[in-house]
Write a structure and sequence with these properties.
Layout: E1 7-8, E2 14-17, E3 20-23, E4 28-31, E5 34-37, H1 40-52, H2 59-66, H3 73-91, E6 98-101, E7 105-108
Helix pairs in contact: 1-3, 2-3
């Protein structure tokens, strides 16, 4: 699948990348005729990564998005990323979405 830059809708209501659409107001991901409602932290991870495309997002930036009340925000990001990747693999198996950028963080796969 050819990668496309995310296209924003009015007021970032939706972000498209490839065959997928991140529906910001509904905090869900759409692929073909299917929708996946994402838990808040997983949605926020994906939202940050999609908005940054083609750049990567550092784990520090993602940890800040999670809030400072967590005991180990970096570990929380890693756990949420593992869950998000598993959820995405089950939802749209042909779509490898997120790649780890060594030292830099995460980004949409190209």
């Amino acid at each position: 699948m050819a990668r496309l830059h995310p296209r924003t809708g009015p007021q970032d209501r939706s972000l498209r990348f490839g065959e997928l659409t991140l529906d910001v107001p509904h905090r869900s991901l759409r692929w073909r005729d299917h929708a996946l409602l994402l838990p808040p932290r997983e949605f926020e991870l994906l939202h940050q990564i999609v908005r940054a495309y083609p750049e990567s997002v550092s784990i520090d930036t993602l940890a800040l998005a999670f809030g400072s009340d967590l005991e180990d925000p970096h570990a929380s990001v890693r756990v949420a990323m593992t869950k998000l990747r598993a959820r995405l693999a089950n939802f749209a198996p042909a779509q490898a979405l997120i790649e780890t950028v060594r030292v830099a963080g995460y980004r949409l796969a190209s």
